[in-house]
Amino acid sequence: MWPSPACASTTAGAPAGCTPRRSARSPAAQAAYRTDGTFGVTGDCPDIDPDLVEAVENHRFEPVAAAEWRNARLDFQSLGALQRSLAAPPPAPGLKRAREALDEMVLRQLAADETVRARCRNRDNLFALWDVCQTPDFRKTSMEEHLRLVRMIFDHLTEGPRRLSDDWIGGQFASLDRLDGDIDALAGRPRPRAHPGLCRQPAELAARSRPTGRAARASWRTASPTPCTSG
Q1: Distance (Å, rounded) from C-alpha 61 to C-alpha 58?
Q2: What was the pLDDT predicted at 80?
Q3: pTM of the predicted structure, to 2 decimals
């Protein structure tokens, strides 16, 4: 049986948004080249349209007007050159420039800072800037909060020992174990078990930081009663 995840909601007796392309992305449908199967639905969904079944079985899909594209050949000669290379137009028909991703938004915001621009005259710092701009936002907070975190990482990597210290990474995990405050403060504070991204964010930073010793890495895993892994 081929379940159709696109058919979870219905309108007027027909699956809502259940196109041949979406239905064919079902893992069961993708595996059907090995074993013949049948179509089926889940829950209270109505039967799948026979035309939809036929289209998937015969690989008849709507034409793709254009594929999204972003330049992968980035220019690190200067901060301005990096931004221009990211904004380069598609090189061929049938491609359209992908909408601005989070890493580009972060780069644009940080590039407006005079201190960041001055540091990025050093090419190593420019590479470091683009690297930290690609830090995922697992916490899903505000853009300002994510920018603050990325800027803090950039400062660590371009000043002093030019690395994320074990103490700083450990502090990111320790903040998850705060038990201070009254009942209202504790109730309103996000819990790691309910928001896995709170653990995943410092775990990602720890994985990128290449800490100096196994002892420090082990201490981050045992510092909190809440399981935090980088996997």
Answers
A1: 9
A2: 97
A3: 0.63
